[in-house]
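user: can you give me the structure for this one chain? tokens are fine.
assistant: on it. calling the predictor now.
[tool input]
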Amino acid sequence: MTARRPRGTPDPIALLHALEVHQTELEAQNAELAAANVALVASNGALVIARDRFRALYEWAPIPYVTIDAARTIVDLNHAATLIASVPRDQLLGRAVEELVIEADRARFGGFVDAVFAGGPVRADDVAVRRVGGDPVDVQIDGRG
């Protein structure tokens, strides 16, 4: 004699089969996620190497580089730029870039920066940069928005 299931009670064999199917699907998804994670870790490692290589090239390039934000605040600069300004890097970060430009060139420099951030055509220009304890030095500026 077979025991009867009360009405509305799910079939345990069907439930077990459904669980096995879901488990198989989850295991396949887990394998895909694990493979994607391996690829992401490798990609991240390559990005770290590229970032470090770029940072070294930027930092020790013989051309002075100053990176500013839209508010004209210095967010990064390389060693050559600190040599021109005769000011240590940590004393320049966070300062307004106009502080480095002599008063007579500030308006022209401001227009140049505005044009760069507006994304319009910008051509190189010259401005004089103030130096601590020295005469101003003429530098060519070039911008990339």
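assistant: here you go. The beta strands are 66-68, 74-77, 125-131, 134-141. The chain is about 50% helix and 15% strand.
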